[in-house]
Amino acid sequence: MFMADVVQGEPVGDVTDASTFDTAQLGFMCGIEVHQQLATGKLHSRQPSMLYDVTIDTVPNDWPRYARKLRLASGEGGKVDVAARFEKRRNRSFVYIQSPNSGLIELDESPPLSHDEDALDVALTVSAMLQAKPLGALQTMRKTVVDGSNTSGFQRTTLISSDGVLKTQTGDVGIDVLCLEEDSARKLDSLSTDHGEQVIYNLDRLGVPLIEIATSPDIQSPEHAKETAQALGRTLRDTRRVRRGLGSIRQDLNVSVACGDRVEIKGCQDLAWIPRIVRLEMVRQVHMYRLANELRSEQSLPPLPQDRRLDDADVESNVMEVVESHIPLECSDVTTSFSSCDSRMVKQGLESGYIMLALPLPGFAGKIGSKVLDSEGSQLPRLGRELAGAAKLAGVRGVFHSDELPAYGIEDEHVQSVRDELNLSSSDAFVLCLAPEWQAQLALESVGLRARLAYHRLPQEVRNVVVKKGAPEDGTTTPMRPLPGGARMYPETDIPTIQITKSHWQHVIDNLPMRQDERMERLKQTELSEDQCKQLLSRELDDDFFDHHQTKSKAWATLLLEHETVVPTVLSCILSVRENDGLTREGIEQVVEHFAQSKHITRGEVEAFAQENDLVPAEIGDLESIVEGIVLERIDFVKERGMGAMGPLMGVVMGACPGVDGKQVSAVLRAIIQRHS
Asked: Which CATH number does the domain 324-455 belong to among 3.50.50.60, 3.30.565.10, 3.30.1360.30, 3.40.1160.10?
C-alpha cells in the first residue's frame, strides 16, 4: 500500500466514538480480497464440488479417518515463513475425515491433475469482465498453509490475470491480481490433549475451486469498502457459474492508517458489517499508537512518528533493546498462591494437573485495560484483548491479568499473594495462565512478546472478526497469526504450465455473459411485473424464462418461481398443455407434483394424466348448457340481482363442474346472466 503524502499531525478523534475520526486525516488505506467458490468440479482432482451436511456428531461411521502432523519446510528462497515457524510451536495434530467426494489427491497421496477446464474458463471470464490482463503462461504455485486445513501443508494457487478495474459509483477500484486456487478443508471440531490441540477436518471442501480477487488500496472510506464488496459479488454472480449460499463467498479486508500498519481482517461474510469493522480497526490502530507513545514516554524513549514511513530503523532497534531488557520473558510458578482459591475454573484446572504461571509486566498497571463499550456497543480497543488473543494462539482458553482482578472467583488475597511473590510495585502488572506447563509457558511467552510490541508500531498481522452464533459479535477482531511473507510461496512442480493464446483470450472476450442491468432490461420488455422481474433475476431463473417456453407470460414466470427445483422443460410442457385447454388451471399443481422428479416428459403423458384424474376442462357446449340450467332454476334471483348474481352463482357452477376453468365459467355465466336479466 502506498500513501501519496506523509500524514501531518497527530491522529484526531475520540476512540469511544469511531465517527469522530476522519479517514483523510488518518491516512486511511483499504483494499479487499474476495474468495468465491465456483460451481464446477474440484480444481485438481475431478471430484464433485459438493458439501455434505454433517457435523462432528453426525459424520457417518464408515467415513475413513487419517491422523497427520505437519512439519516445517522452507520456501523457494530457503527461508521458513514466520507464520509457519509460530505454528510449529503450537504442537498441533490433525485428523482428516475422508468424505465420499475426496480421494487420494485430497489425502495428498497422489499427484494433482491439471486445472479443471470449466474452473479455468470462469476465472478467465471474470478477468475479462474486470478488464484484467491475463498472463501468457499460467504457473501454479504452492502457498504454505500452517493451520492444517490442507493435508499437503500448502494451497495450490495460480495467478490468472492482473491490472484490472472495478467500476463503482464512488470511484474506480483497481484490481491487482486474480488467482484461481483450492479451497481448504472444513474444520469440524478441536480437542485439547496433554500434548497439544487436535483439530478435526472434513475433506469435502478441500480442492473446491476458488477465485481470489485482490483490489488495489483505492477504497476511499468504510462505506466504499462495502460498495466495492457488493460490486465484486455482482460481477462474480453475473457469470452464473459460481456457488451461492452461506460460506460460498468470503471477504478479507486489508486496512491501515498512517500511525498503524497493514492488517488483514478475515471473516467479513456479512457485507452490512464491513463499514463498522473497518472503522473499529482504524480506532484500534490509533489506540495502540497512542499507547505505544505513552509507554515510551514513561521510559524516556523517543516517540513514534505519526506516519510509519518516518520510522527510523536505528531508533526502533535501540528501543527494542531497551524494551527486551525491561520486559524479560521470565515466568514464575505461583500455583501455591491459589491452593485455597474457590474459583471453580481454578479448582478444576489444578485438579487436572495444570499449573498457574505468572508473567510480570513492569510499568503496565492500568494500561492493559478492562471491558468498556463504545458509543455503538462495541468493545473499546485495549491491550488486554491483544494479550489474550496472543495467548489463545497457543491453544489456551484465555489468561487473567491484573487490571481485571479480582474477578472470576480470584480474590484480593490471591492477587496480593502473586504481587508479593513477584515483588511487583503498584505500577507493575502481571498476567496469569492456568494450563499444562508446556502450554502455559508458550502462552505467556506469546503474551510477553505481544507486550513488548506495545512499545512499537502496530504489527502487520492477520486478524479474525469475533463471531458468535454465526454473526459478528460487535465488529471487533482478534489476532490469528503474523501476516505471511513471500517465503510461503514456491513453484508447484506436479502441474504443467498452461499457455493462454491470443485466440483463446479472444474467444473469452467474445462470449462474456450478460450483466445484471442488461438482464433486467431484457425482462422489462415482457409483460411481467417489476417484482417478477426482480425475483427471476435474483434467483437466476431469467435464462430459463427465455429459453424454455415460447410464451413469455406471467403464468410462465409464476410457474418457474413457484417450482424452481423442477426441470424447466417439464414445467414448460405442462404449461403448454394448459394453454391448449388440455388441463384446468386448478389441476396444474397436481400435475407438477406428479412429474416433479422427471427429467423429461411429453405432452401426451401430461394429457393422459389429466384425463385419468378429471383435470380436463369441460367442453364449452356442455358448460353452457349446465350454466343455462342453473340460471333458469334461479331466474327470479337473477332478474332481481342482475349482474350482482355473478358471485353467488359462480360457486354453484364450479360445484356442478369440478375441474372446469374458472375463467371459462366466468365468461359463460356473465353472458347468460346478461341474456336473461
From this structure: 3.30.1360.30
